[in-house]
């Protein structure tokens, strides 16, 4: 099969995308702050250090192994033939990033995008394992995600793999559309979060026998809400850079992409604000933050392809789903997800991918999106769970009960983030 | 039970892929219905896995 070669990028576009990718780490900073703020005060330093360590491990694992499997943009890859069609399922990049200087400038930008994407994807499950996941476990799961799982998806979606070729091979619109990583980053992160929660179990005292789930609110609303603002800047950069790199969007589309991203987040915040105001009598700050983030996540799939009104509708739906699903997962399904990552990233990302299909003008686009979702749910979730289950045998995810009681800061680091604060006894351990 | 649910999920994926291989582009309705069926099987697997998680959680409280 002849690999799809992207059109040559002008120098001005190259500079624009590079500048945007230098802003994209703000999304990582925002998610890190939200993860930390939604955890407990006695685990703050461990949570933030974990975020840094995970970004570092993810970058190293992706450089050493993952980038090879992801393969550079337009490379041939490993292909098998079925029913007369070529299925490009694995990349064939050089080992250890060798010869990076000789690939095209556009392929280098694509690789930089993937480095930032893998760091963000690996951070997502860390927030769900807050207050009980050991630092080494966080690093181990980041290594597994960055070396094995993320590269598979990145190749399928961005580097000419079988999902991106659905349009050419099976006349399904433009193939699976995910220019800024709603599936590749967020659904992957959200499903990994579900796998982590299944492997690690809930925080002690979260689901007392015969009682309701114990409320364990986030400790710092400032971190959470400021994280949302930082995330907006990073998301704008991700969405615009992704549109140029992976969807070959012309420059004239980029301002609309920015407006769509903002409108999706705004619609989601307004909807979550209204739902929580209606449900609880007052708007809930942390759920509103989750709603905002879910709007951003949904926009990752479709900000470059929908109209502003459609983006607003997509955001509103994401904002309605978010608080309701958070409640269902905690109260009805006994899933302890402190950061709400399963709802925000997995459900928000899935909705964005479906919306990209619903609002696309091309015939068959919705089916292409559904096939991509089938791959995410049917292959990536079981694979992530299996890998985490194996890793947990060698690097136990969960801290011992004493560590959970005194807090992860004291147990793992020997000191807290707020040394002048009095740490109160936790009633759930009586 | 959780493992059983997670094993069902890839079956749903292969059903979705089978839709692309078996039905031509001109038969979009049948193709779409088959893909939906694949997703429904995945959803079923997910429900079984979630039920397994809830059962395991209940046992750990006893």
Give a description of the structure:
- The complex is a heterodimer of chains A (430) and B (62).
- Chain A is mainly alpha-helical and 430 residues long.
- Chain A has a single domain, classed as Ammonium transporter fold, CATH 1.10.3430.10.
- Chain A has 15 helices and 2 strands.
- In chain A, strands 1-2 form a two-stranded antiparallel ribbon.
- The radius of gyration of chain A is 21 Å and the shape is globular.
- The model of chain A has no long low-confidence stretch (mean pLDDT 93).
- In chain B, 89% of the residues lie in helices and 0% in strands.
- In chain B, α1 runs antiparallel to α2.
- Chain B has one domain.
- Chain B is mainly α and 62 residues long.
- The two termini of chain B are 18 Å apart.
- The chains are: A mainly alpha (430), B mainly alpha (62).
- Chains A and B meet through α13 of A and α1 and α2 of B.
């Amino acid at each position: 099969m002849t690999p799809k070669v992207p059109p040559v990028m002008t120098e001005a576009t190259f500079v624009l995308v590079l500048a945007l990718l230098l802003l994209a780490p703000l999304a990582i900073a925002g998610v890190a702050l939200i993860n930390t703020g939604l955890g407990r005060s006695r685990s703050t330093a461990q949570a933030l250090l974990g975020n840094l360590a995970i970004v570092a491990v993810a970058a190293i694992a992706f450089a050493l192994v993952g980038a090879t499997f992801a393969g550079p943009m337009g490379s041939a890859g490993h292909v098998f033939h079925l029913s007369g069609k070529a299925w490009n399922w694995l990349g064939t990049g050089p080992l250890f990033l060798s010869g990076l200087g000789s690939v095209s400038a556009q392929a280098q930008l694509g690789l930089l995008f993937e480095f930032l994407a893998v760091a963000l994807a690996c951070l997502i499950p860390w927030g769900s394992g807050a207050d009980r996941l050991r630092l080494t476990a966080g690093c181990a799961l980041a290594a597994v995600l960055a070396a094995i799982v993320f590269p598979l998806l990145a190749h399928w979606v961005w580097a000419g793999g079988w999902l991106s070729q659905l349009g050419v091979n099976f006349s399904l619109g433009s193939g699976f559309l995910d220019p800024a990583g709603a599936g590749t980053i967020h659904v992957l992160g959200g499903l990994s979060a579900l796998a982590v929660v299944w492997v690690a179990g809930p925080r002690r005292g979260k689901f007392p026998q015969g009682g309701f789930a114990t409320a364990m609110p986030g400790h710092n609303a400032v971190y959470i809400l400021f994280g949302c603002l930082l995330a907006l800047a990073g998301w704008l950069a991700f969405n615009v850079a992704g549109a140029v790199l992976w969807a070959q969007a012309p420059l004239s589309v980029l301002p609309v992409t920015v407006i769509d991203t903002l409108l999706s987040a705004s619609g989601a915040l307004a909807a979550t604000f209204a739902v929580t105001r209606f449900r609880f009598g007052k708007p809930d700050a942390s759920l509103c933050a989750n709603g905002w983030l879910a709007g951003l996540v949904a926009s990752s799939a479709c900000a470059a392809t929908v109209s502003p009104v459609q983006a607003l509708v997509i955001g509103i739906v994401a904002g309605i789903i978010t608080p309701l699903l958070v409640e269902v997962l905690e109260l009805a399904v006994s899933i302890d997800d402190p950061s709400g990552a399963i709802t925000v990233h997995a459900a928000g990302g899935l909705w964005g991918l479906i919306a990209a299909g619903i609002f696309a003008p091309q015939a068959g686009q919705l089916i292409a999106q559904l096939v991509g979702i089938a791959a995410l749910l049917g292959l990536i979730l079981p694979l992530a769970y299996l890998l985490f289950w194996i890793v947990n045998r060698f690097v136990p995810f969960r801290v011992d009960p004493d560590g959970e009681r005194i807090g992860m800061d004291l147990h793992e680091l020997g000191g807290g983030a707020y040394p002048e604060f009095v740490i109160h006894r936790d009633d759930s351990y009586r | 039970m959780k493992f059983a649910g997670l094993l069902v999920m890839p079956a749903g994926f292969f059903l979705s892929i089978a839709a692309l291989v078996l039905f031509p582009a001109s038969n979009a309705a049948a193709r779409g219905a088959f893909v939906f069926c694949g997703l429904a099987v995945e959803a079923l697997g997910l429900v079984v896995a979630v039920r397994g998680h809830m059962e395991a959680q209940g046992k750990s409280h006893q």
